[in-house]
Every structure is written in C-alpha cells, then in structure tokens.
Design goal:
The complex is a heterodimer of chains A (about 500) and B (about 60). Chain A is mostly helical and about 500 residues long. Chain A contains 22 helices and two strands. The chains are: A mainly alpha (about 500), B mainly alpha (about 60).
C-alpha cells in the first residue's frame, strides 16, 4: 500500500482524536480523581465505550483473526466465554466497586485492596504485579502497530515510526487531560473500530462470497475442520481461565468501574460494552474464517489480517487499518494512564502520605512520560522474551482474583492471605511461564490460579481479619439494597401498588 | 447479585458453555453448530444482564 495514503489516514484520524481530546479538556477540573478517573462524572455511553476500547486491543483484528485462521471456531468460544464472564462479573462486582470507590474516594483498584485489608503492602504488591505484567503487554501493542505499519507499506514507513506515532497520540491524550480525554477519545476510537470493521466485513462477505449465506455455505464446504470445535480441553481452559477474570484482575478495566456518574450510567456502561464486545468478536472471528478460505497455508497466522489488507482495495484497506490503529492506541493510552495513577496513588503516596493532590497529579503525569519511554525501549529492543512475558500477563494478573473476591464476599479474608497469595501465586505462575513448565499439559495459569486460591484460604484461616472487614462488607450489602442494585432477586409485592420491599 | 447466586449462575453457564460443544455439537461442520451456539448463549447472558439491572439507580 502506498505510504502516502497510510500517512494521510493516520494524520486525519489523529487530528480528529486530538480535537476530541481538546474538547474534553475544557471540562477538566482540579484534583487527582478528576485527572485519573474523570471525577467520577462520565455518562453511560462514554463509560461503556472507554471500557470496550480499553478491553479490545489490536489483538482482536490481528491475534484473534490469526487464532481463528489457525484453530477455527474454538477462538470464538474462547472470546465469547470471556465476554460471558465479564458481563456477569460486571453485574456482580460493578456496583460494589462503584459504591466503595465513592465512599472512600478510591482512584485505583489496589487502593480498594489496601483499604479493605487495612494494609498498604497489599496495595503495593497489587500495584507491583500490575506494573510487571502490563508494561510488556502495552509494549506488545506498540510492536504490533510498528509491524503492521511497516508491513502494509512494505517498509516505506519504518517500524519505529509507527511506534513513535502511536506513543505520541496515546501519550498526548493521557498526559493532557487524563481520563476525561482518554475516555472521550476512547469513545471515538470504539465507534471507529466498530464502524470500520463492520464496513470491511460487509464488503469482503459480498465481494468474495456473494452474500453472508454464501460465506456460511463456503465455510462448511471448504474449511470443515475450522467450523468444527477441535480444541483440546487443556488448551481451551488454559487460555480462557485468565481472561475469564480479566474484568477484576486487569486494573485498566477494573478502574473503569469507578468512573460512571450514577447507577444508571453504570448499567448503561455494562450494556453498551456487552453489545460492542458481542458484535466485535463475531466480526473478528469471521475475518479469520474468511482469511482461511481466501489465503490458506500461511506460515504465520498472525499475518492473516495483513494479507487480507493486501487483497482489498486501498480505501477498504485503509479503513481496516484505521480500526486496528484505533484499537491499539486506545488500549495503550488507558493502560498508561492507569499505571500512572497507581504509581502516584499506590506507590508515591504510600512513601510520602502527605503529598498534595496537585503533586500527586503531577507525579502521575511525569510517570506517563517515563512509562511511554519504557514501552518505546521495549519495542525498540524487540526481545523474544517480551512475547512470553506479555502472554503471561493475564495469567499473572489472575493471582489477584481471590483477594479481590474476598474484599466483598469473605469476612474472614485477611491481609496476610491476600498478600502471600499474590506473591507466591505470582512468582510460581511467572516462573512456570518463563520456564515453559506445563505439568500434565495444563497451563501455568491453571496451576498458579489453583495455588493462589489455596494460599489465600489457608493463610486467611490462620490469621486474623482486619477489624473493619465485617463492617465493610455489611455496609456494601446494605447500600446495594438502598441503591436498588439487586431488586430482581428475592422481592415481593407490598400492600402499596407499585411498591416493593426486599426479603 | 448475591455471591451465592453469582456462583451458581457462573457454574451452570460455564458447564453449558463447555459441555455442549464438547459433548454434542462440536463435530458438526457448520456455522450453525458451535459458532451459533456460543453466539446464542452470549446473547442470552446479555439479555439476562439487561433484565437484571433494569432497576439500578431507581428509587426503592
């Protein structure tokens, strides 16, 4: 593809994103929570779209397409299972995070852990694990973009040019106005992702297969092995388990449970995200099946989408490219902003509790620059290990799940249980991933997750829960009823028409 | 959602999500089998979520 058109597409799209960020900045107020979580004033649509575009990275139109190309409909099962878990987790944990965040002015997810377990070390450990796992993951977004840009222009735009462009855009929006501009540009990016991928899918379905029905018929006839479910159970569970709890364990998304301005907006956030994820997952897997029929025999399945781009007209290729660029940029910006908030709140503020909110915000902004520089270095070095480390990110972050569940559902959960489960589980999972140890064929995330639960339960039973544990959970349960968060369970009609009471 | 309800729901849906393709429809070479099943199951969960959250934020 001619590099001029690629430059033109990136410049036009980036200019639009910058204009949206500028508009968002006009509403920016003072304070750390304003910068890091938009002052908890985001409406439902923007909350839902920032959640969606943070969750769905370039992996969808690159990695998931490749996974479907190679392994078939199992990829859809894996991604839909993730979505099912996420929707149910958001319905259950969303109100709890939102209520607790409002009462205690939590900005980061580790802050919730530190507060409930009454131990700053629990928060520090959660923040440290997040940094260790998410910096390589963010760098992979950069590397993917660099490869894509240089690939489709056949080297006319270099790998590092693509990397620097993406850093500049995502860094600018995060640094300039924090969550408010990240969320607004995320919403723009999410709409871009959906519209461009839908348009491209529609075009390819009709152009190459005559109609969607023609595509379905061709798939059954040409690639029967890919429309049957052939995944081994160990592979399916190993890949799905860490992603199933993504909504709780990945701070860049769990932090978004703090941002809606009302319970109604929280509800809309969940619904919009769920609908987006449903459509986008189907689109991505259909691209993979299309590629399997149109360009069979690729050595590297991850290049299936790039080969698809080469087979479509320039305008359509640019549309798909912009969608991938949007997905990667929004995920990177969100991760960097979340990590910067954790540096300011969970690390710097623990060392110097007396720092002001403006200093906290400034520290966060400075850390955005440092984090992006670290990501550029990772991407520039292109170490082989980074792929392994990034793939273990979701498995490594899974070790926080028991401690997070315990915050709201287990009064006997203790700080020692939370701390040691994260440390031991995290170390074991990381070592198993790096050494490629798969006992009995099961993935490290399965062993690490099981070990984490055991350590969490055993250590908690042997130690004393914090004094505030019972009061914290009781208050959450009472407030859930007060805000009508679960009226659909166990209600009966009272004497007054239209009125209900909880039983 | 209460923790116990959430756990039961999650176990049931996970069982359906995994067992149906592995035991019954996984080897049918058609988009109308596993592909359609997972789409339908996910859509059902989304509809459930819409219904379950319909009164959030409304006065009790």
């Amino acid at each position: 593809m001619n590099s001029f058109f690629v430059w033109l597409a990136m410049v036009i799209w980036s200019a639009a994103a910058v204009c949206i960020a500028a508009a968002a900045r006009r509403n920016l107020l003072a304070g750390a929570s304003e910068f890091f979580i938009g002052g908890r004033r985001l409406r439902g649509f923007v909350s839902g779209m920032t959640y969606a575009s943070t969750t769905y990275s370039a992996f969808m139109l690159v990695g998931l397409v490749g996974l479907t190309y190679k392994t078939g409909v199992g990829a859809l099962g894996f991604e839909m299972t993730y979505l099912i878990f996420t929707v149910l987790l958001l319905v259950t944990f969303g109100p709890r995070f939102w209520l607790a965040g409002n009462w205690y002015d939590h900005i980061t997810p580790p802050e919730l852990l530190a507060n409930r377990y009454d131990s700053k070390w629990v928060g520090v450990a959660a923040a440290a694990i997040s940094f260790f796992m998410l910096i390589p993951y963010a760098s992979v977004q950069l590397m993917g973009m660099g490869f894509l840009v240089s690939g489709i222009t056949e080297g006319q735009i270099t790998f590092m040019t693509g990397v620097v462009l993406m850093v500049a855009l995502s860094g600018f929006t995060a640094f300039w106005a924090g969550m408010r501009s990240v969320a607004w540009t995320d919403a723009f990016q999410a709409v871009t992702m959906l519209v461009t991928s839908l348009a491209a899918l529609g075009w390819t379905l009709y152009h190459f297969f005559g109609s969607p029905a023609g595509f379905a018929e061709a798939a059954s006839g040409q690639i029967p092995e890919l429309v049957t479910f052939t995944w081994e159970p160990a592979f399916f569970i190993g890949l799905t388990l860490p992603w199933a709890f993504f909504a709780l364990t990945n701070p860049q998304v769990s932090q978004r449970m703090y941002v809606p301005d009302s319970a109604g907006s929280l509800r809309r956030m969940i619904i919009y995200f769920a609908l987006f994820g449903f459509v986008y997952t189907i689109i991505s897997t259909l691209f993979g099946l299309e590629a399997a029929m149109l360009i069979p025999g690729l050595d590297n399945p991850d290049k299936a989408m790039a080969h698809m781009l080469a087979r479509v007209p320039t305008a359509m290729g640019l549309i798909i490219f912009v969608g991938i660029f949007a997905a990667a940029t929004s995920t990177l910006g969100s991760i960097v902003l979340t990590l910067s908030s954790m540096f300011a709140r969970d690390i710097a503020k623990q060392i110097r509790p007396g720092i002001s909110e403006s200093a906290e915000r400034l520290l966060g902004q400075m850390s955005i620059l440092v984090l992006l520089a670290a990501c550029i270095v990772f991407a520039w070095l292109r170490p082989g290990l980074i792929t392994v480390v990034s793939s273990m990110a979701s498995g490594g972050l899974l070790v926080m799940a028991p401690a997070i569940v315990g915050v709201f559902f287990w009064k006997k959960a203790t700080a020692a249980g939370a701390l040691w489960s994260m440390i031991i589980g995290g170390l074991v999972t990381a070592v198993m991933y790096l050494a490629k140890i798969y006992p009995l064929g099961w993935w490290p995330s399965v062993w690490g997750g099981g070990l984490t639960v055991m350590v969490f339960v055993c250590v908690s039973l042997l130690t004393t829960p914090p004094d505030n544990a019972e009061a914290f959970i009781d208050r959450v349960e009472e407030e859930l009823d007060r805000h009508n968060f679960r009226p659909w369970l166990g209600r009966e009609k009272t004497q007054q028409p239209g009125k209900y009471r909880h039983i | 959602m209460k923790g116990s309800h959430f756990t039961i729901l999650l176990v049931v849906i996970t069982a359906v999500d995994v067992l149906v393709p592995y035991l019954w429809i996984g080897d049918i070479a058609s988009l109308g089998a596993s592909f359609l099943f997972w789409c339908a199951l996910t859509l059902a969960v989304i509809v459930f979520a819409v219904a379950a959250t319909r009164n959030w934020g409304r006065p009790v």
